[in-house]
Amino acid sequence: MSYFKKVRVRIAPSPTGDPHVGTAYVALFNYVFAKKHGGDFLLRIEDTDQVRAKSSSEAMIMKSLRWLGIEWDEGPDKASSCGPYRQSERTAIYREHTDLLLKSKSAYHCFCTSERLDGVRAKQREAGVTTAYDRHCRDLTSGEVSANLDKNIPHVVRLKMPTSGVTSFVDEIRGVVEIENSRMDDQVLLKSDGYPTYHLANVVDDHLMKISHVIRAEEWINSTPKHVALYEAFGWERPKFAHLPLLRNADKSKISKRKNPVALTYYQRAGILPEALLNFLGNMGWNFGNDVEFFTVEEMMAKFEFKDIHLGGPVFDTVKLTWMNSHYMHKMSESKFVDYVRNEIFSTEYLKALKPFVLERMTRFEQFVGNNMFFFNGALDYSEVEIIPKGKTEADIMGMLTGLVEKLDDLYEWEHERIKAVVEAYKDELGWKPKDIFMTLRMVATGRKDSPPLFESMELIGREMTRFRFRDCAQKLAAGTGFKKTVV
Ligand code: GLU
User: Fold this and answer.
1) What sign results for the dihedral spanned by CA atoms 314, 318, 319, 321?
2) Which atom of ligand 1 is nearest to the CA of 16?
3) What's the CA angle centered on 48, arms 33 and 277, to 5 degrees?
4) How far apart are CA 169 and CA 324, in angstroms?
């Protein structure tokens, strides 16, 4: 009898940055598959990388999925019998499971220092062979191991991979995938800080959470043989696997924020409707059939099969997304339209925050919209403003903006004092004069020389749109179009 009693799927994002369109894409296909089969959809937060994990990122992932209407049945904020659903709260479970593997001799302690490992890799590179752990500690005697442990020598735990034979699994989309065991490394399961690696935590959790189908992005397919080896080592029934094709930029490279906005929060701010984004994502690699492009999530559920997924590398084409969005905008009922404009564009909260800044040059309310467009618009037109100060080149401005966006990417608490601190530090790092950097940023962020105070404006325009405008301006400069060339 199978271990799996019902369809249970999950998404397992790592909360390390902005909520990514790729997460929404994988979530949609998991959700559709689960609901089609009357199953459960789980949200698990893979936050064992303590250096990179951010709690604000977890909150944004949840908010963005809810904005899309993809609701989970179990998750960090919806406790159920398989919890906790945050990996950082499950470390004892991973240690127990590592002990099980050590006991059954499927895993071993490795005391090699990073210097030794670097040396091994350097030699392998010199010899032109694939770099891998040389299994130095695999056959230590139990006496040697206990002596090292007694001396508190830092160590990791590695999986004892079979050295011959093949590991294979069936991918529901690709068919059989095989890899020779001799090509697989003795992967680390538990790191020297006692935290699990992705592989261990992912497999233990998928098993304990009774995940019947692992539906994830193609970038994880190389990890799957390692996971299969772990299922074997534990003696557990493995789930079914399906790896969705990666979303791509127009040039077919893996989707990246350098070429396309990738944050769900950006698309929300840019006025893309959730149903349009879901419909667009549903067309990524999957076809409804009969040339039908517009469909709801419910309609997708009725027709969805793994076999209809194409591996061609779907392009995340923002022009197409925008076109689909306009279709949904036109289909809106009168009341939905009014609600959207009121709640999303002129929300009470936003208007209250704007009040201290927007009355400055106004004597009549008829000026409100015209005077304050930059608080509501998306991309700005730089053809009439002078964004390049004397003594600076287009390349300087492009580089400055691109570098600043990277700094701001890490600023989640979007508050004017904090923004100011980041910009000031960056200015010092570059060695630029205040007026050069501040005037340029003001014009790029607001399109105007005489906007309300710069950092307050950036706060109000919002994290998404401010960063978008900086990136957009850098791209326009790179393309040499859409801005005024005069040097001020
Ligand atoms: N934590 C991985 C991620 O960030 C999970 C991959 C998987 O679904 O196994 O996507």
Assistant:
1) positive
2) 4
3) 35
4) 37
User: How many CB atoms sit inside 10 A of residue 398's CB?
Assistant: 17
Residue 190: strand pairing partners: 157, 196
- Altogether, the residues listed in the chain come to a count of 488
- The pTM of the full predicted model, rounded to 2 decimals, is 0.94
- Mutating to test ligand 1, I would choose from 9, 41, 202, 238 the residue with most ligand atoms within 8 A of its C-beta, which is 202
pLDDT at 250: 87
Counting from 1 in the atom list of ligand 1, the atom nearest the Cα of 202 is 9
* Cα 227 → chain centroid: 22
Catalytic residue at 257?
Answer: yes
Q: Enumerate residue ranges in the chain where pLDDT < 50.
A: 486-488
Whole-Å CA distances, 457 to 78, 157, 358, 403, 438: 37, 51, 10, 20, 12
Quote the distance between the C-alpha of residue 333 and its chain's center. 33
Choice among 191, 240, 257, 407 that is catalytic = 257
The DSSP-derived string for 57-72 is: HHHHHHHHHHHHT---
Domains annotated for the chain, with CATH where assigned, are 8-88+247-318 (3.40.50.620), 90-244 (3.40.50.620), 364-488 (1.10.10.350)
Q: Are 197 and 14 in contact (CB under 8 A)?
A: no
* Pocket-testing residue among 10, 14, 203, ligand 1, by greatest number of atoms within 8 A of Cβ: 14
Backbone torsions φ then ψ of 124, nearest 5 degrees: -65, -40
Query: What's the pLDDT score for residue 479?
Result: 85
Q: Is 137 helix (H, G, I), strand (E, B) or coil?
A: coil
By CB atoms closer than 10 A (0-12, 13-18, 19+), residue 211 is: buried
Give the binding-site residues of ligand 1, using a 6 Å CB cut-off.
Answer: 12-14, 46, 202, 216, 220
Give the pLDDT confidence score for residue 488 in this predicted structure.
38
| CB-side neighbour CA atoms (13 Å) of 416 | 11
* Cα gap 97→203, rounded to integer Å: 10
23 CA closest ligand 1 atom index: 10
